[in-house]
Amino acid sequence: MLTQDNNTTRPDISHLRIAPQDKEERPIGRWFLIITVIAVLTVAASIFFYFFREQAVTVTVADAEQIVSDQEHTILNASGYVTPRRRATIASKITGQIMEMLVEEGMLVQKEDVLARLDDANIKAMMKTLEAETDAAEATIAEISVNLKNMKKNLARNRSLYKTGVITVKELDDSETLFDGTAARLELAQKQIDVSRARLSEMKQELDNYTIRAPFAGIVVSKDAQVGEIVSPISAGGGYTRTGIATIVDMQSLEIEVDINESFIAKVKIGQKVTATLDAYPEWKIPARVRTVIPTADRQKATVKVRISFDDLDPKILPDMGVKVSFMEAAAVPETNANRVRVPLESIRQDKDNTVTFIFKNGTVESRPVKTGPSNGKFIEILAGIMPGEQVVIGDIVNLHDGQKARLAANQ
To answer: pTM of the prediction?
Structure first.
């Protein structure tokens, strides 16, 4: 249909349509959408991997050490107790009442540390009296010295007067007698003041006895008296007087004391190696050596006392602990397992029924089941599962898992 506008004829195309079969398809837009989605997913995956990937854990390692056979075997077993060579129950030199107690069980003390103080009021009062007497004696000496000086002048004057006949012989003799007597009094006063000073020095020493001090460094294992009780170096027998203040043990002098049947004492020698096992720690093998064999036997028990020194003392070793000892002797026994190793005890983890350790290898940790043997408290023997020289992870191994990435600590 034709319309006319301003005398200009234009065609009306508003009713024209393109048939669907005549439309041209455009596949380019579809591929663009697919590529865009793939790119977004790739970027998202990269970001996720960067932020959530497993980070390498920092570990500390130790080498599995091959155990070298010591070629020794047990020839004698015995039991005894841990005893200190230096144990002292501290007592007072004098009888007195405790006014101050400065120690408790378990306290570490050094030599000359004050343990307790006794009531010293009486001796201090006596010292003040003696000091006053000494001061008075010194004043008397000063007075006698002045008089003696004056008498010396009078004697010289009388001797001159006697020569001129002014005084008689008797008057001269009286002057000489008075001078000699005053000189004797001065000498006596000086002796008396020496005695007073000696007594004062003795009193000061006595006063020091009212302070109880530690004779050596150690640990207080027993507090035997309380404030207000009377202590004395001699037992009163009635139960009201203490003879000890506290008991101190030198923990550096701990050793083992065992009784060996006299039939086997020939197997024990000074310096002989011994393996000790405390009853409190049955898995802990402690190296030790025979220090001395007491050269006398107990007639009733038919035993000889042997004292054994620890190679290294440990805070877990306490006085009077029960201990079993094995006396060792060299023997030509070949090593039957060349791959026996030991690792630090802290490298072992117990997972349910399995005992495992972690081996560091090629930047990862490998969980390795192992069969363990005896332990000495620091190292544990591995009977199977680890070869000598392999690096085991030590320290915090609770959260490790097999195949986890790892790197060595900076100090290794």
So the answer is: 0.51
